Amino acid sequence: MTADELSGSMRGLTSYGDLGFSRFLRGAFLSSAGYDREDLSRPLIGITNLVSDYNPCHRLVPEIIENIKRGVLEAGGLPMVFPTMSLGETFLAPTSMLFRNMLAMETEELIRAQPMDAVVLLGGCDKTVPAQLMAAAVSDVPSIIEVTGPMIANSWRGERLGACTDCRRMWAKYRAGDLDEVEIIDVEQSLAATAGTCTVMGTASTMACMAEALGMMLPGGATPPSPTGDRLRHATHTGRRAVELAREPLLPREILTKSAFLNALTVLAAIGGSTNAIVHLLAIARRANIDLTLADFDRVSAQVPLILNLKPSGSGYMEDFDQAGGLPTLMKELEGILDLDHVGVSGLSVGQELSHVASCQPWQSTIHPLSDPFGDPGALAVLTGSLAPDGAVIKSSAATPKLMQHTGPAVVFEDAGDAARRIDDPNLDVTPDSVLVLRNSGPVGAGMPEAGSLPIPRKLAAAGVTDMVRVSDARMSGTSYGTVVLHCAPESAVGGPLAFVRDGDLIRLDVAGRSIDLLVDAAELERRAAEFTVREAPARGWLRLHHGHVLQSNLGADLDFL
User: What's 42-152+194-354's CATH class?
Assistant: First the structure.
């Protein structure tokens, strides 16, 4: 038997120039951990561990891991837990997105380098699941996604609230002077009541839904809250299924087909998912060698209405979605427009899975029937024009209708730091009709932080202004809302048109016409382009590598050599 033919604990042997010695040495060290030959003959199941004190969302991961391990053992496998980076959204500077590709690389390399017949990729907070799906797409090892699950909502003074759409709403009230210092501190203690990811359809919940819709997660796994028995039971089922996948391999490249992505895009439109999912799905598809473009997102979104009443596009929370039946019930409503023949990690087709699912029930108002949707088609829209020749995106379902067609003068901020310094300057030349422009915040310029949802200038907020058109090459949190144009490509840092906007320039937004334009004549733009200079690259390390190789947002912001 060659090294390539070995499986289980003897798979992928360390090279010592002697195959027999490599097997002997590995067995010797595993015996020190209490394993015997019978243990080592079982299918070996890797399980990722993303526990970190810097990631409170993942606080209950150890309990979830224990249930995955229980499922593995029940099915006759041997669980092996291994650590990877834990990308906690609120603790990474300047943005967790800067490290998504690093986690994808690390996960891919560890799957390849360590012996495992299958792997359970346990993720949660925003960038972990996309990174794991990117790794799975190229690892050629049976892979199954499990997630930590969302938090449970809390209340404050009788008002239901939870992270993190309400984080932004309550902070806006504080900025407008509607909450005082004592009240905002009290709110701070109430927003994140339990472990888990955000309680709304932010990026974490969106990507959990995408993993399930792609077929990379067992049905029903996207929505159970983190502290519940349902979450633990799903983890156990995932562990059992991982062993079955090890014995009868179904590889990610067999699951991540064009049909899988079109199903996911349909679900994304129906749930009013995070705009971040666009960048992540483009990156995953690229890894899987699937031709997926921004045009696909816009085409599907234009045909699929919003049927989920959930913040930030509605009023509900993830626990409401779960209690209403979760993603299987929502997909049941989409049954007529999904590819029912697609086979996911369960080994069953979408049609077979949905045959056991009941339609949404009248006692709930979270999942709407397709015949009576919660919102119109086009929850997400792709824009092009002179300000974004390669595309930009807007979450129409969370925007202000009267601003969806708007022309106004630009107020330009050079970067997020400049915006932080000047946005509340009482002398800032800004009106409610102004278009706030943020540049140098794209993948190359700043790692693409969630800075695109610029705050309303304090003097306008205090006067009752709650929304303005905002345009940038940055991202925004899936929990955010407002008339915010994002992901302008090419970005300003590489000489995209956003770099040439000046204060007072007129910008025209026409969501219905799918356009975002800078109303400046070509000769003037050519003159400004001639004055453009590229900012200096970071001096060293990951930031320098990322800066030199990251692709634009319309290509998924992955690294060009992966």
Answer: alpha beta
